[in-house]
Amino acid sequence: MDAPPAVAGAAALGLDVELSDVGPSRSMEEHEAKLGVAPGSLCKTLLVRRDEDDYVFVVVSGGRRMEWKKLREALGVDRASMATREQLLDVTGFLPGTVTVLGAARTLPVIIDAVAAGFDRIAVGSGASGVSALVDTQAFVAATKATVEDVTVPDGR
Q: What CATH number is given to the structural domain containing 130?
């Protein structure tokens, strides 16, 4: 297997990553168990559209969901929406489920939820299905120039 995009992306940012290929999982909880990481430290990276051709990555802790009102306030906008599948592929180069800030086709602003930022180490996408990139959270925040914001609530499903 070729190295997933996160490897080159992380190297370009001077960020150390550890890859873990655990294959597909049926849930975030199952994936966290396979990775052997703390509950909630597996993060999903979402692409949010805040205006025409204006996007931002939002890194969200597992077991939480984005709270749109909080996100709009953090972004200082009245409207924001999830990118479509086509926009996701065009802007990041990734398919749903593989999105990562590291190695994306475009460099975009990054928001990391305060809960995710509270972990010593997080697992983020690598650009390849079933493969996670484990990173030191503070190093990730610094390398990606992420803004830490309270933009989620417990999933509750």
A: 3.90.960.10
- Give the global pTM: 0.94
Cβ(141)–Cβ(112) below 8 Å = yes
Q: Report the run of H or E that residue 90 belongs to, with start and end.
A: helix 85-92
- Per the structure, the complete domain to which residue 11 belongs is given by 5-154
Per-residue pLDDT of the chain (157 residues; tens, 9 = 90+): 588 999 999 999 999 999 999 888 888 889 899 999 999 999 999 999 999 999 999 999 988 999 999 999 999 999 999 999 999 999 999 999 899 999 999 999 999 999 999 999 999 999 998 899 999 999 999 999 999 999 999 987 5
Q: Which amino acid makes up residue 122?
A: I
Name the 3-class secondary structure at 34.
helix
From the list 102, 48, 52, the residue with the least C-alpha distance to 75 is 48
| Total number of domains in the chain | 1
